[in-house]
Task: structure prediction
Amino acid sequence: MVKTSSPTATLPGPRAGDGTQVLRRAAAILRSVAQAGASGVSLADLARTHALARPTAHRILQCLVAETILAQQEADKRYRVGPLLHELGMAPGASAAEIARWRPVVEAVARRSGVTAYLMRRSGVEAVCLVKADGHGPIRFVPVEVGQRRLLGVGAGATALLSALAPDGVEEVIHAVEQGLRNYPRINADSLREAVALTRRSGFAMSQGTVAAQGFGMGLAIPEARGASQLALSIAAHASVVTESSIAEWKKIMREELAEGLRPLP
Result:
């Protein structure tokens, strides 16, 4: 099983002295911890990623731990998502409705394709995984877990969501995430533009070894009645099971299940 995470994009922050600065810093730290998933992230890594002095990062982290928003295990001192975030995530909201509606579709895609299937949601310049369903194939390939975040353009589902934006929006996102792409040697601003163009021509976003070695992904944006797509279906498979015929079959499955999910309720 392969798991990867992505860095947080650095966006323009508030000016010095702004009373919201600490909230913005805490939110950025929370995104990084969520991206790290079960492996957690260290104080040193968080301080470096967010250009914070270690004492400043430590104070913010300890406050988040005290409020149970984050948790720190004594064994390795790494920070992970805490119980309060899980509890808040269970509160009714738009995401809960989306999950209830689209989970059967994701599960059907996984069952019929035999590979891992996902529901991804756009969140600013990132995509967050809302639903994951494992296929029955002999090789499980899991590049992202529920709750983990990806920069738009990193992975098939995130690329499908990026491609659904208007041209000006695509360029704005590429500018925002460009620094974070340095952790992905095979992805840069130009390759993202090429991926967007290909996605718009074919209707499917493709990711072949760009995020994880031996990984293949395919994403399909879920259309909205108005505005850019907020959700995308995607699959992830090990390169060893990918053939032209399997890709064609997976496209067929994703189209059929998407159509079923878009069917009006009786």
